[in-house]
Specification:
The chain is an alpha/beta fold and about 350 residues long. The chain folds into two domains: about 5-195 and about 305-360, NAD(P)-binding Rossmann-like Domain (Rossmann fold), CATH 3.40.50.720; about 200-305, Dihydrodipicolinate Reductase, domain 2, CATH 3.30.360. About 35% of the residues lie in helices and about 20% in strands. The chain is built from twelve helices and eleven strands. Helix 5 links the parallel strand 4 and strand 5 (about 160-165). The longest helix is centred in the last third of the chain and has 22 residues, at about 305-325.
Length: about 350
């Protein structure tokens, strides 16, 4: 019998709700093929083997509730199934640090904290050890530099693997990467690349234009949505690492970098009624034979959380097999395929090949 992948959830928000409700959907419908993932089995693990044994958040309406109930609390918008069976335990308090932006504070309503950072750290370490979690999944909001580093420290102190879903650079930062390697703990990061997301579509088309010998002169990608991710990103000061992550993901596919003022890749605005619907608008302008111009425009509409959840399921399973094999440090192949800002960028075809080699233990 395959053992379970025991995880700790940091941030019991929309992304987490989409992940666990999707797992529940496939548990309730074993006859259905799991789609939106690399493959149904990675190593010996299916998505149904993923379990969350503890969770951490800062919202007053989530802390103290069961993890299985907290995923349905506002401002979460994912309501795909009525209940989830892959979650256990009570949501514990996480230190806020820089994890709550000014625009989302009224939506999240963070708990009034009376404990110190060190007290909360010790409680988190005790909870993770007590519940047997082996992987920490970081779903904190964009701009949570200090909070993400806090949980990376917790991972190191609890001998957990780390999956960094958001754009604070941990796996792609040499100092942090070396620390995980020294502890022989795997890390997959940084910043999810959606299954069919704005950035993967943009970089694929940019790579196509480049490989076909055209000259790209300028390009943009703008995104709008209606969940807390997008209202949080109205605070432009929180976007530095996000813009770097998305921009470098596209630039990495070109033989010649575009000048900084000829490429824009980033969020644009918050439209409340869109909910979890994300809209992407992309344009590429370039030249062909004889300097004759061409351009293309793409409009993409996706459910933002369905788009990230399959990536979560793959990242957690890759991290677990690295734990099983006692592989430490950044996972190069999985990170390159699953993340926007991995330690090493490849074309998507190369990244896919490296991920498959990793899974096959080559």
């Amino acid at each position: 019998m395959t053992k379970k992948i025991k995880c700790a959830a940091v941030g019991v928000g929309n992304c987490f709700a989409g992940l666990v409700q999707g797992i529940e959907y496939y548990r309730k419908h074993p006859e259905k093929k799991v789609i939106g993932v690399m493959q149904e089995k990675i190593g010996d693990y299916t998505v149904q083997d993923i379990e969350f044994v503890c969770g951490f958040d800062v919202a007053e309406n989530k802390v103290g509730k069961s993890l299985a109930d907290a995923v349905y609390e506002e401002p979460n918008k994912v309501k795909w199934v009525e209940s989830v069976s892959c979650c256990s335990g009570i949501v514990k308090e996480s230190p806020i640090l820089d994890g709550v932006g000014i625009y989302v504070e009224n939506m999240i309503k963070p708990i009034k904290q009376t404990k110190t950072r060190e007290q909360l750290k010790q409680e988190a370490i005790e909870e993770i050890k007590k519940t047997g979690a082996r992987i920490i999944l970081n779903h904190l909001p964009v701009g949570s530099q200090k909070a993400t580093e806090f949980w990376a420290e917790v991972a190191l102190e609890t001998d957990c693997g780390f999956v960094n879903a958001m754009p604070v650079f941990i796996a792609s930062n040499k100092e942090w990467a070396d620390r995980f390697k020294q502890k022989n703990l795997p890390i997959t990061g940084d910043d999810y690349k959606g299954v069919i997301g704005a950035t993967i579509v943009h970089r694929t088309l940019a790579n196509l234009c480049d490989k076909r010998g055209t000259k790209i002169d300028k390009t943009y990608q703008i995104n709008v949505g209606g969940n807390t991710d997008f209202i949080n990103m109205l605070e432009r000061e929180r976007l530095q690492s996000k813009k770097i992550s998305k921009t470098e993901s596209v630039q990495s596919q070109l033989r010649e970098r575009l000048p900084d003022d000829q490429i824009y890749v980033g969020p644009s605005d918050f439209i409340p009624f869109l909910g979890n619907t994300k809209l992407m608008f992309m344009r590429i302008e370039g030249r062909m034979w004889g300097d004759i111009p061409y351009n293309m425009e793409v409009r993409l509409e996706v459910d933002d959380k369905a788009n990230s959840s399959g990536v979560s399921a793959d990242a957690l399973r890759c991290t677990q097999i690295a734990l099983d094999r006692k592989i430490g440090g950044p996972l190069i192949g999985p990170s390159a395929w699953l993340m926007k800002h991995p330690p090493q960028q490849f074309t998507d075809a190369e990244a896919r090949e490296k991920l498959e080699e990793f899974i096959k233990e080559k």
